[in-house]
Amino acid sequence: MKLRSLLLFILTSILVVAHAKEIALTFDDAPMGTSWHFESSARTEILIKKLKGLGVPPVIIFANACNREDSASVILQLTKYKDAGHLIGNHTCSHPRLDDIGFEKYIKNIEQNEKLLTPLLMGVTFFRYPFLNESIDEKLRDEVRNWLKGNHYKNGQVSIDNDDYIFSSKINRAKQNGKNIDYKKVEALFLKHVVGAAEFYDSLAVKTLGRSPKHVILLHEMDATVMFIDSLVNEFRKQGWNIISAQDAYQDEIYSRQPKNTYTNNGFIAQLAKENTGETFSYNGDKETGAELDKILDLKN
Ligand SMILES: [Zn+2]
After folding, report:
1. Number of domain units in the chain
2. Would the pLDDT of 203 be above 60?
3. In sequence order, what DSSP letters do the residues of 91-133 get, joined into one string?
4. Spatial distance between the Cα atoms of 152 and 143, rounded to a whole number of angstroms
5. Rounded CA gap, 164 and 289, in Å?
6. Ligand 1 centroid to residue 123 C-alpha, Å
7. Are 223 and 38 in contact (CB under 8 A)?
8. Entry pTM
9. Do β-strands 215-220 and 241-244 pair in parallel, antiparallel, or remain unpaired?
10. pLDDT tens, position by position, 141-173
11. 164 Cα: distance to centroid of ligand 1 (angstroms)
C-alpha cells in the first residue's frame, strides 16, 4: 500500500511538472497617448502586427475611451484590435481608483466607457479595475461586484501582476533627458523581470491551489512592452509556457471564486493565497528592478 501511494505521488508529480504552463496576455490602458518613442496609433499598429506574427491567440485590450478628448479617433484606433480578432474590455473611461471616488461616480465612469465602446463590445464583457483596486471597504466592494454581475460583466482578474509600466515611464524619462539608452540591456532586464513574475505567481499558485492554473498576465499597451513583446513571447515559450487566448484562460474555475479578503492589489493568486494562509505575498522584483533600471538608464530614482 505504501509503495502504491509512493508510485501515485511520483506519477502525480511528473504530470504536474509535464503540464505546460498556460498564460494569456492582456494589455491595459489602451490607447496610450503619443510618447517620446511612439506616435499613439503607430504603437497600436505595431503591437497588432507583432501579435499576429508571433501567432498569439486573441488577447484582451482593456480600454479607457476617455484617454483622449477626441473619442471618435480613440474608437477608430481600438477598432483595429477588434478587426485583428482581439477582445476589447472595459477599464473605466478615465481610470479612477474606486476607493477615491465611491460607488456612484465609479459606475458612471464605467457606463460612460461602455457607451463609447458600444460598437466594440460583444455579449459578456470583461471589466478590469484600475490599479486592481476593488475597494478595501467590503460593502463598497460587494456593491460594485453585484453591479457588474447584474450588468453582464465578468471581472477581468489578473493572476500575474508585474508593473511592466515602469520600463516605459523610465525609458521615456531617460529619452526626454537626452540619455543614451542601451535598449538591449533594458530588454534583458524586462524579460528577467516579467518572466520572473510569472514564475513567482505560478509557484505561489501551485502552493495555494495544488496545480498550475490558466494564467492571465497584466501588461500595458505601452512603449517598452510593445518594443519587447516579441522577445517576451519567445522567452515564455522557451521556458515552457504555452500562450493561450484570454477567453480560454478565464474558463479556469479559479476566476469564478470570490475571496472574502480585500487584498487585491497584487493580483488574484496573491489574494487566494492570503485567503488560505492569512499571509500577504507580492513579487519582490518590482522594487529591485526599478533600481537596476535606473542604473542602466543613468536616472537618479
Ligand atoms: Zn490601468
Report:
1. 1
2. yes
3. --SS---HHHHHHHHHHHHHHHHHHHHGGG--SSEEE--GGG-
4. 15
5. 10
6. 22
7. yes
8. 0.93
9. unpaired
10. 999 999 999 999 999 999 999 999 999 999 999
11. 12
**Ligand 1 midpoint to CA 9 (Å):** 42
Rounded to whole angstroms, the Cα distance separating 299 from 301 reads 6
Q: Which of 21-25, 48-52, 208-212, 280-284 has the lowest mean pLDDT?
A: 280-284
In our burial notation (b when 16+ CB lie closer than 10 A, e otherwise), range 230-249 reads eebbebbeeeebebbbbeeb
Residue 7 lies in a domain: no
Distance 75 CA to ligand 1 centre (A): 18
> Rounded CA gap, 204 and 272, in Å?
10
Which amino acid, one-letter code, is at 13? Answer: S
Domain region containing 270? 19-297
Q: Which residues pair with 252 in a beta bridge?
A: none
Q: Would you say residue 247 lies in a domain?
A: yes
**Residue 66 sits in a domain of what CATH number?**
3.20.20.370
Q: Across the chain, what does the average pLDDT equal?
A: 94
180 CB-near residues (< 8 Å, 6+ apart): none
- Residue 94 C-alpha to ligand 1 middle, in angstroms? 9
Report residue 43 as a C-alpha cell: 504603437
Residue 263 belongs to a domain: yes
Q: Can you tell me the mean pLDDT for 19-43? A: 95
Cα distance from N-terminal residue to C-terminal residue, the chain:
60
The closest alpha carbon to 86, from 194, 248, 246, belongs to 246
Beta bridge partners of 155: 127
For helices 98-117 and 71-83, angle between their N-to-C axes, nearest 10 degrees: 70
Per-residue pLDDT averaged across 188-208, rounded? Answer: 97
Q: Is residue 171 part of a domain?
A: yes
Encode pLDDT of 252-287 as tens digits. Answer: 999 999 999 999 999 999 999 999 999 999 997 667
